[in-house]
Write a structure and sequence with these properties.
Layout lengths: L2 E9 L6 E12 L5 E9 L7 E6 L10 H9 L4 E4 L19 H19 L4 E7 L2 H6 L7 E7 L11 H22 L1 E2 L10 E2 H8 L15 H10 L5 E8 L7 H9 L4 E8 L23 H11 L14
Parallel strand pairs: 4-5, 4-6, 6-7, 7-10, 10-11
Antiparallel strand pairs: 1-2, 2-3, 3-5, 8-9
Helix pairs in contact: 4-5
Length: about 325
């Protein structure tokens, strides 16, 4: 069953034309058959796109939070598939207690299924992967990631607390490595929603997150299948193509050190790395989520659009006409 919604006259940030953006809400199959909630954003006037985007959300962040950015790309003739990982958002089951899901499921099965669906829908299009936060790790571990020709990594990091800004390290270490595993064992999942921390997180993923205490990837420290986890991590080394890695100087989590650690896991990628200060784009703050909020459109979104369209290497967003 699909639901179709149309946004008339959705206009991009630089007024590069407008188009009716159609949103098709659907169910797609992960590689293991699990059904995922997803939305395909496209221009109804577009017949055969040359480029299509697969968007990999940050950990436990619902795809709906990125909808405005997806509409922007679709209005510029680039269809976008957004999906929720199992247990999150539109892919959540009625109850998370007892629900089995680990990061390898999100990466191997869910990202893999989304890539396969997008390739089937647009067999001649070049697929560009856009990923936010630790979604960069998830998309990179998909078994069919070779179908993606280039990437945009936004606020990329590995979830290692010592890479955070100093003032956040202790409180985040207490939360992720102290509070999270205790509450997860009590509830059978991490009740993030009641704590004002976003979406509830399935038990397996939460316990893996809580075990991320060292700079190296150590799957043996979790309850996950170590062999399967090592296979996912091993795929990182074979991911190739060009990646535009964008970070922000006021991001408490995806700091320069955090992004560098993430990129070191992908040695075959040709990286163009850019750090942007809020003042450069006339924004009071950006942080970990500000790219997707109102205010990011005028300069940040077209900067990414240029790269998505043709891989053009623009080293910085264009200066704001109002900046001094």
């Amino acid at each position: 069953m699909t639901t179709v919604r149309r946004h008339a006259g959705a206009t991009d940030a630089k007024n590069r034309g407008s188009a009716d953006v159609t949103e098709v809400t659907l169910q797609i199959a992960a590689l293991d058959g699990f059904m995922l909630g997803a939305t395909l954003y496209s221009s109804h006037a577009l017949q055969e796109p040359s480029t299509a985007v697969l968007f990999s959300c940050g950990g436990a962040i619902p795809a709906a939070r990125y909808a405005r950015f997806a509409r922007f790309l679709a209005a510029n003739q680039i269809p976008v598939l957004m999906f929720d990982y199992r247990g999150i958002g539109a892919s959540r089951t009625s109850a998370l207690r007892g629900f089995r899901a680990v990061a390898e499921d999100w990466s191997e099965h869910d990202c893999g299924g989304a890539i396969a669906y997008l390739r089937a829908q647009f067999p001649r299009a070049e697929i560009v992967g856009i990923a936010h936060s630790i979604g960069t790790m998830l998309i990179g571990g998909a078994p069919n990631v070779d179908l993606i020709s280039r990437f945009v990594f936004l606020c990329a990091h590995t979830g290692y607390y010592a890479d955070y800004m100093p003032m956040y390290r202790l409180p985040m270490a207490v939360l992720w490595h102290g509070v999270m595993p205790i509450l997860t064992r009590i509830f059978g999942y991490f009740p993030a929603h009641v704590l004002g921390l976003g979406e509830d997180i399935p038990e397996g993923v939460a316990m893996q997150w809580a075990a991320r205490r060292s700079p190296e990837f150590r799957p043996e420290s979790t309850n996950a299948d170590v062999k399967r986890a090592n296979s996912m991590i091993a795929r990182y080394k074979n991911v190739s193509g060009q990646v535009l890695a964008i970070g922000f100087t006021d991001d408490a989590f995806a700091t320069r050190a955090g992004t560098r650690r993430l990129l070191e896991a992908f040695p075959a990628l040709h990286t163009v790395s850019v750090q942007i200060a809020p003042r450069e784009v006339d924004m009071p703050e950006i942080g970990h989520f500000g790219f997707f909020r109102r205010g990011g459109e005028p300069l940040l979104w077209p900067f990414v659009l240029d790269f998505v369209k043709d891989g053009a290497t623009v080293l910085r967003p264009a200066a704001s006409p109002t900046s001094g």
